[in-house]
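User: My collaborator sent over this chain with a note saying "see what the structure looks like." That's all I know about it. Can you take a look?
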Amino acid sequence: MNEKVVADYLARLEASLGDESAFMSVFDEMKSDSEVRQVEAVGLVSRFVSPMAASTSKSKAFERILRRHQNIISFDRKQRAGRGRSAA
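Assistant: Without extra context I'll predict from the sequence alone. Here is the result:
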């Protein structure tokens, strides 16, 4: 596994979480980067989201990375939508 590639994308993905355009830019670049093989993708998910089986496909790993970002975006939108409303 290329630890440098994993560490670089990990830092960039974490820094862009919650920023739709910045995250998607990094995500798209990562998906098309020939240095990100299956083993790097799984290693990245295991650090960015949670441990993942080494046999997991590259596409499933990318889906899991994107899902984390989407969950954060969805949560933020729900939080903003609920502001100003009373609990009663």
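A starting point for your reply to your collaborator: The chain has one domain: 3-74.
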